[in-house]
Design a protein that fits this description.
By secondary structure, the protein is α/β, with parallel strands linked by helices. Helix 11 links the parallel strand 13 and strand 14. Helix 4 packs across helix 5, helix 7 packs across helix 12 and helix 10 crosses helix 13. The protein is globular.
Length: about 400
Amino acid sequence: MNTAALTIGFVMLHTSPLDIPGTKDAGGMNVVVRAQAEALARAGHDVRIYTRRSDEESPARVEVEPGLVVIHLDAGPARLLAKGEHEAVMDDFGHRLDEALEGDSVDLLHAEHWFSGIAALSVARGRGIPLVQSYHSIAAEPDSPLTDGERPESPGRLAGEKLLAHEADLVIAVSEAERQTVIERLGGDPDRIRVVPLGVDTELFHPCVTEECADQRDWIGRGGRPEVIMVGRLHPLKGFDLIIDAMALLPADARPALRVVGAPPPDGDAYARGLHEAAANASMLGTTSFDGALRRSELAERIRAAALMVVPSHSETFGLVALEAAASGVPVIARATGGLREAVDDGVTGLLISGDDPQVWATAIAELLADTERLERMGRASREHALESSWASSADRLIEAYSVACRNRK
């Protein structure tokens, strides 16, 4: 097979690459898939992304750019579903996917998340093409600590993820931490797992150089509050409640401003309300902003205007927002877990913290913000680190992995 011009089918059952990250169930996975798909298309490959129709208005096909099209398949009701409801439409989606490939075949299917993998597995086998699997997050046992990973929202998740670890032709991990999780928790074959590092758009995410940012730095120099930013779905796994508790421990007159960017998933309103209530109970509403989900350009502006990003997630396969902060020249304080250990160079581009003690997090935030020289040094190192990553190189690594899967399937 000539891998110089592959036809690639990405499968995204439960969320669309057209959704704004931070809304619905859209998050880092959506950013990654779309960025890699765009890079593959620009490299000359024909790329389709198959996703479930979640409304009546979306057209059957959306051309994102030359060589990249999003295809909506009718599976289940044309409305937004809670994440756990998608298990019930996997079979239907698989049938629709198989129908879509009639007369419009692909060289391989790359499934994103376990819903997509189970739906695509029989299709790939029936057509004799490779199935490549990416997890993006991996479930932990229901009674395990939150730090072990996401809860299995639907009954078949754990079994489905383990099945895919054995049946997929190749598993793509975004970090060494995720690779080890696939091996240890799911029993994956190390020889069939490839690590493909993520990229970052260093033109969109860049250090603050505008007059507005200069004015902000001057304002902070005259006693204004520096800003700490958190980005992601408003979901317990992200640990945002820990940071609100930590900020509440800081003296009110020296407390930095806190900006929260993101929206709850379809079934996450209770957690979002709890964050607002916690900020109110701590008398922090005057220094806390809840921005909701933002478009990528707006998000980039918010990040580079911040002095510091915090990523307290209990589990992350990588933590793309940490890399986006690095590209923006913004240091990161993150939990020492999963792929965040690889996204943040402890002591160089930011700090890694273990545990859930709000006082430990509060102290780290306050001390780093107070040491402006160290903060600026970390910001410069962060930008240098991010410049080593690109979506084009990530796509090149994907093509190498696809070539292996295609050769082995012959």
